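Why does residue order matter? Because the sequence determines the fold. Keep that principle in mind as you read this record.
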Amino acid sequence: MLVTPQWAGTVAAVVAIAALTVLLRLRSGIGAAATTLMGAAVIGLPAVVAVSTEPALTLNAVGAGLMLGAAAYSAAGRRAPLIALALGVLAATVFFTGARLWRVPAQRWSVTLPGDLFYVPATVPLPILAVAVIVLGGVALVTRADEPAVGGRPAIVGVGLPVVFLLLYTVLGTTESGPVSWTVAVGLAVAAALAGAWLLPAPEGHVLLVGLAVAAVTVGQVHYLSGAWWWVLGGLIALVAGVMVGWRYPMAAVGMVLLVLVTATGLLPDSGIFDAVTITAYTLVLPGALGLSVASVISTTPADPPAVVSAAMLPLTMTFFAVSAPLAVADYGWSNGYPTSESGPVVTVDSPLPLGIVVATVTAILATLALARRSDPDRVRVLTRRGRR
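Structure:
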């Protein structure tokens, strides 16, 4: 339980919302800089003190939450920084394996051995943490403390949803759950997220719905090999293009529809041209859709920072799709001990059983319809009547 992504995401989100709420009430740049320093110190603690795996994961989550809360404080009331904050967290989550190409992996295999403690290194090297403290702390110190007061509802939703997701994951939706139990957990979690979006004002609700659709699209996991740098570059270009289009011509519904289509590509057969379609969708279309959706909903009316943080963390607090979706029984073959050929594809997309993809696609569709209804309810009613005819 304490070494799962669901736990880490929940802790990070709750700490981030709590820290951000306190900072917005204090309106203290010095407090935000001190929070950044505290978060970096917590993350870097395993570099100077031996910390075993379970507490290290929680420490990382707490440190990340503190730094995220301080960064969100500096972005409050400004559209471009809020877009950068949301996209930074979402893109890092969706394309985590791409970032791993430039990281030295830590050998953590012994965490599975009972009674055999494994002391993990710091997740982020200390020099990088120092640079992050200087940049984030410096921005926080010069941030003007005249942002409008934030209501309590975004903070309550931001803390309540991760806790609800954690309970549902623990009781019904872990990796050991059956398809029926997992589907029930996802249904309840999606209902809670839609209710949370409905309770929030329109700008905050729209951002949360985008986060829900992005959480659904993580049902397909992109894996990059060492020769896939040009796919990563293409994705970055698509992300920037999506942000530019969304900033100038807000089209949140178009971006959400693209997220639905990307999610649905996991249902295509595993062969030839279909693999190429799925890979292209996840590596090139997904970044563009992500940038378009986020920029469209935030560029028109800046949302409250707690809602932006909640939406950005949603793929990490709702790990039903990325972590515990029902998988097919693994088929292990014999190996002769020699390295396998590296002539295969440099990018692959792994998907769960079709049930998981269908549930994720339905989730993205519901998020899209909810956003369209809140944006233009009269038009949605007309379309519904035409569909009934």
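The mean pLDDT is 84.
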